[in-house]
Design brief:
540 residues; homodimer; glucose-6-phosphate isomerase activity (chains A, B); alpha/beta; EC 5.3.1.9 (chains A, B); five-stranded parallel sheet; monosaccharide binding (chains A, B); globular; carbohydrate derivative binding (chains A, B)
């Protein structure tokens, strides 16, 4: 697949020129947002999902060229190819069919190697049945007691998305089974988790596609020892989510049940597969998980079908590219004015930075333009009292505000200063976007605000499984669109390999030292030797 | 105080020149770290606190000029002035005496306006007595039951530092009183907190210097309503941490007790004052808090006394300046290979970005150089499975690794691949720093790593109150040093004011609408009107 490079496209050149003019005062946001039609012209709504980009540093000409950029990259065509099961992850020779996990493939007959939808349906039926049996106590622990808690053992894509959705939904739905997460190989992560559960009523969900992920296997072994010490049979306390035929799928290793994951769904896009499906169905019931999938599916249909000009994930991908490649902002903050969405930023941080932090094009050439930026964020108003000083007066970065129209809590409210807490929250969200855009002059330069700092605002109506699904699928689609337009592969992650190789070399030496205390680390460079000696000495 | 501007200093010019040469291949980190003396020459140790900057893109000449920069800025002199109680926060006409909270003022007789140390000692004695009475059940709740939980109501500096220290220490010490945090004005934050506590055994700690912080007051009112609904007397369930004479210190508002905070300690530097002292003493006992203070004090003494060349906070501030102002990295990641330190990055994010994200110099001139960068981070190895793809192959950013030699968990360990989990953790930490520095060539450009990506490594021996104290005081001192060298005020935060003013205007209109439903938002711009109408409609 030979492509025109991103920065050789005609639209790129035009956008570069347009960005140079942008320093003229008339393009300051404080002027641009005076236009009465500004919000109308620079916002989109779809099915209870609202995206306001009126406070981005764009005008009609920029928007038109950005859309040209998407057209020249054939972004929509590639997105269609993705949902149809073509091999879009070319470096790994795989499809990227996370959208099929929501039950959607335009023409499933075209997929020759396996019947993707019936495989997905099979796993979902299995999840439905298993979680129902846990909830009605048909399946009980080795102690004979019903399960009350489940620990998800997984890292990265086997963890962050599920944690985001669980955290959001538990604000509105009381969990039937409480979830905990054991991700880090840090033994103190294990030490903390076991303080919070009762081993007799705890299920352990091991999630690893290959069933060789170092951290997950190390934690599994620690859990097996823990079960043994508590005289509990692992085959009554463990389930696995793993690829068909992996060691975790081996009938010789008896477990309660195994759920398959597929190589056509990558880790960071896997929340809607069994990776999220099993833990979330255990927590809230399979019907809630199904409602969540419906929300994702609605956004998928929008992402694949809406014309460029109305396509929210596509437009937001273009704006992200505009901000990073033309206006040279190095980061974007995601600030949900909603405590329930506190784990959204860490999830998107992985999704985005792992997908787009690439050094080569789709066709394997080194890149000389910007790909991927830093994503970080905390909920507002908390962020206002943390790092917004920098946002207003230090080096600028674009902000994505997220608002939820109706909160979950619906009992007695006291109010303060004549407004309710949720109103106070929204007053702040609205004010921050305005303050960043407008700025303020002041003779006292310590109180002077440059303004002209861009932001978007996303709004959903409420915290339902459907709207959380839309939010998840929105960020997935936007990430994929951005990859396609930048001409990079948003599905591989070769950048994590070198660290693994070096860690494995160091591990081999530690292993030798563990069996032979006279072994030395002299073959290493002085720094590596110093750290390993310190580790074995137990002190600096 | 008229100063030479940061970028007019001689050392600045020299550093600028040195940075230009740095693209020569011989300065690639893979070559620089081959020097057998590299670690020895570019690392510092003090009292169980180790700082390795050998994988930073510096050499002797750069280091010498950086030290000149510190000398020309009289950084150490200013630091001494700070700990001596001079008015270093000139825009707010205040001292910055967080170090005095650790019992340290070189010459207290010089302080004319109040006896700082005896005031601090008085509050600490009060904390000691109060927490002891809670622990031995001399003070009980209105229900007659002993207290089991406490909710900290505070935001920003009244919350993040305490949360960091609490999270770290609860890995090694079982809390006597469990802490919870109610920070966000989001009513769903309140809704979640009350699910986790029993109102009959819960103490509420209201932290606000002025006792007017919008979020904290709104949450307080909500809590008062909650106590009333539960038929509990607020005067038996509330304590306040606030300035002398504030509404929270008014004897007319009966509370269990009030603890003073002082205007010579700013919010983000206040963990060692009553802001952290009361909750942490309730959680772990006053003796543990005292040990924590000792760790801070040890680092304070080092920061004020160690010569430039051996001064860890000063050197690390210089390296941060080198990376942002000369090598133009826009961010820094803080990656503790330690789950217990999971809340360190959010705390440092506030401390650093609010202190250094400034637009004016100390003497009130607009700035034309970089001040403040983005701080973000997650624990390793989790971060490796999240955003390290970008760190290795996308746009580079410096990383600060943090290692703890001995973990807390000391029971049975299973091990995996011939190594224990903590060894695996360290193997990864060592490998990541190496991989970032070295890079790797590969004909397959998807597997090519540029390397030359800088990192530092901090090591502490173990998770004790003392070492957590050193870590906290290290980041405080480094932030202050960076501000002094950059010629900005690290103690004010005028950048948060504009948003507050605009929120207050919007609040006034919401208030009117709450009492008169025919009231319209027509006087606002269309975007603000749209958001407020949506909020009142309850739907998009």
């Amino acid at each position: 697949m030979v492509q025109t490079r991103f920065n050789d496209r005609k639209a790129f050149q035009n956008l570069n020129r347009l960005s140079k003019n942008l320093n003229e005062d008339k393009f300051h946001l404080k002027h641009m947002i005076q236009d009465k039609k500004r919000l109308e012209n620079f916002s989109l709504k779809f099915d209870g999902f609202f995206y306001d980009f009126s406070k981005q540093r764009i005008d009609d000409r920029v928007m038109e060229e950005l859309l040209n950029l998407a057209r020249q990259a054939e972004a929509k065509k590639k997105f269609s190819q993705m949902v149809s099961g073509e091999i879009v992850n070319i470096t790994e020779n795989r499809a990227a069919l996370h959208t099929a996990a929501r039950g959607f493939i335009p023409d499933p007959a075209n997929l020759t190697d396996m019947d993707v939808l019936s495989e997905i349906n099979r796993v979902n039926s299995q999840i439905k049945e298993f979680s129902a049996k846990i909830h009605n106590s048909q399946i009980r622990s080795d102690s004979g007691k019903p399960f009350t808690d489940a620990v998800v053992i997984g890292i990265g894509g086997s963890y962050l998305g599920c944690e985001f959705v669980y955290t959001a939904l538990k604000h509105c739905i009381e969990p039937k089974i409480k979830l905990h997460f054991l991700s880090n190989v840090d033994i103190d992560n294990f030490g903390q988790v076991i303080k919070t559960i009762n081993p007799e009523t705890c299920l352990w969900i091991v999630i690893s596609k290959s069933y060789t992920t170092t951290e997950t296997m190390a934690n599994l072994k620690q859990v097996l020892l823990f079960l043994k010490n508590n005289k509990l049979d692992p085959s009554s306390h463990l389930v696995t989510v793993t690829a068909k035929g992996s060691p975790g799928d081996d009938p010789a290793n008896k477990v309660l049940d195994s759920f398959h994951m597929f190589d056509f769904i990558g880790g960071r896009y896997s929340v809607t597969s069994a990776v999220g499906g099993l833990p979330l169905s255990l927590a809230f019931g399979f019907d809630i998980f199904t409602r969540f999938l419906k929300g994702c599916h609605a956004m998928d249909l929008h992402a694949v079908n809406a014309p460029e000009k109305q396509n929210i994930p596509l437009i937001s991908a273009l704006i992200s590219i505009w901000n990073s490649n033309f206006l040279h902002y190095p980061a974007q903050a995601i600030i949900p004015y909603c405590s329930a969405l506190s784990k959204l930023a860490p999830h998107v941080q992985q999704l985005y930075m792992e997908s787009l932090g690439k050094g080569v094009t789709f066709d394997g050439n080194l890149i000389d333009y910007k790909t991927g930026i830093i994503i970080f964020g905390e909920p507002g108003t908390n962020a206002q009292h943390s790092f917004f000083q920098l946002a207003h007066q230090g080096s600028p970065f674009p902000v994505e505000f997220i608002g939820v129209v109706t909160p979950v809590y619906n009992k007695d409210q006291a109010g303060s200063n004549g407004v309710y807490n949720h109103q106070e929250l929204w007053a702040n969200m609205i004010a921050q976007a305005k303050a960043l855009a407008m700025g303020k002059d002041d003779d006292n330069k310590a109180k002077y605000f440059t303004g002209n700092r861009p932001s978007s605002t996303l709004v959903i109506n409420n915290l339902t499984p459907e709207s959380i699904g839309m939010l998840l699928a929105f960020y997935e689609a936007r990430t994929v669109y951005e990859g396609f337009i930048l001409g990079i592969n948003p599905f591989d992650q070769f950048g994590v390999e070198l660290g693994k190789i070096l860690a494995s070399q160091i591990r081999d030496h530690i292993k030798q030292k563990n069996t032979d205390e006279t072994y030395t680390f002299d073959s290493f460079d002085p720094a590596t030797k110093f750290y390993l000696d310190t580790l074995f000495n137990g002190s600096l």
